[in-house]
Amino acid sequence: MKASRRDFLQRIAKMGEAALAAPLLQRVAVKFAPAAESAQESQPNRSPTMIVRPKGIDARAYLKSVLYTREEVEQWIIGRTSVLEKYDGEIGWIPHAGFARNGIDGCTCEYSYDPSGARRMTGFADRECRINTYGDSFTHCDQVSNFESWQERLASHLCEPVRNFGVSGNTLYQAYTRMKREEMRTPAKYLLFNLHGGGLWGSESPWASLGLPRSEVMNADWREPSSRTLRSFGGRRPTVPYVTVNPATGDFVEHPNICPTADSLYNLCDFDWVYEHFKNEDQLKVILARENIKRRTPEASYDEITALAQSRGIHVRIASPEDLSDALSEISKQAAIFMNQRTIEKIEEYAAVHGKRVFYLISHSVEDLTAALRTEAPFDQRLVDFLAARKLTYVDDLDLHRADFARSRLSPQDYLRPLYIGHYTPFGNFFQAFAIKDNLIQFLDPRPIAYSE
Q: CATH number of 116-203+338-451: 1.10.443.10, 3.40.50.300, 3.40.50.1110, 3.30.565.10?
């Protein structure tokens, strides 16, 4: 009966009586169609196959929430940020001397630096240094004082200095950029790069904190920031040297810092400038999609992220918030792994040209280590396989911690508690130094004084 009635109305429409049949046909279709189709067809002037996406976060509104104030720019330029860092036009930022109450048992840590810009050397600093270390906060040794870093523990034991050019928050590409600069000014024969075991140690964004808007603005429907918000905004970092990549095509394009001078850093206060420079960034698309998930409007990003994924060889069908989240993770993961692998190749090319040798140290967050010690899952296997396939010299902290943990009767959490307070504790840095000692001694030629014949 239902089918014959629909057929009758369709025949009337074909005979040219559309004015009479169309409204009736529409009501019948709405009544007997599935609920999802009915919701689409009931909307006037819309194709029955059109999917109407809800309106998500507006790019212009989001970018307004990440603007700097002139006061904040001035704080970065003179080095008065709450994170003890200072703007650097080539690298993005570098550490700045000071004290911070962020150490073990709530103690205050001292951070000071040599004229070279490296963290202050205390062990055998009067001797020639042949080891320069580069990387992020696990290289810089956040949350311990100068003498408590793993570099200083090594130096004291080997009877020769180890220089520390680590910068908290740096990507591997930033560390590579700093290495090229510092090796022209304070060279060393041996370069030690500290890698992040999870592989996700990279960003395609020209602005390090593009994904960190003012939280109070986010929770207030994008209103203008208040003075109270501005005072809590000092830790967001400025623009950086970066790369754009596409693992599917092999693209690896290097870009210098888009704010290379102190004066240009004030561009981050100018909305029109920020919008023109970031509106088409793939990283912004990813950021907005993650914010749409938080705001429960994920459908607004389905089409854009599907297109972005497909352009990178990731063929997905996004039909739920979970699909969207998985696609975003895969896009970021593949880009970061490819970016880091290509950066390692750039490091090796540089070392070959300049007669240097490179040693890689793979460090891990306490969260990754806890999971690995519990499940024995090789979460850093892709990085390890990459280094091994190229016969590069490396030490993986995961292997060392597993061997040490095997001698313990503690749970993973209890085993790691004395070693970590976010970063390594003084005890953790001591463990780090002696975990890599034997491999490093074999790597150096001639051997250090403590192990020379």
A: 3.40.50.1110
